[in-house]
Amino acid sequence: MSAKLPTEIVRIAKLEIGVEEIDGTNCGPRVNEYKAATWLDSTKGWPWCAAFVCWVVRRAMIEAEVQETDTFKRPRTAGAWDLENWSLKQDQSTWTKKPHRGDIEAGDIVVFTFSHVGFAISEPDADGYVLTCEGNSNRVGSREGGGVVMQRRHLSKIRSRIRFRV
User: Fold this and answer.
1) Based on CB atoms within 10 Å of each CB, which residue in 1, 15, 71, 76 is the most buried?
2) Coil/strand/helix, residue 113
3) How much is the pTM?
4) What Rg, from alpha-carbon coordinates, does the chain have?
């Protein structure tokens, strides 16, 4: 596996911390850019946590010089849990682990039990917490929070993890 793609995912995701939507509309200049990385209309207001993931992966693939192939396509879904389906349809370029059993690394996509998604930016600490970077969240951890934020999530809240192996 190339270590460059997970490294780029973490770097790019962290650079987006602080981006916010406008007035709780699920829209805004940067938010609409994230949403344009999916199949849905980016000008409409809809929950965008998965769109943030798709946008970061697209940017990281460019920076890491990872190309799409006939059997590996970047994610384009707006559904948090649907990222598991996307990963399972890829070749060996991704590895979905559900349940994850604490096997979380920086750069993994982490799918939460409450229909939300983000990126791990650390491995679990001794207390079972992982630092994450998430879109459409806030300081109290909402899945409808309106910004790109860093969270500290317990492993028990993570449904699955998706790791890139390209």
Assistant:
1) 76
2) coil
3) 0.96
4) 14
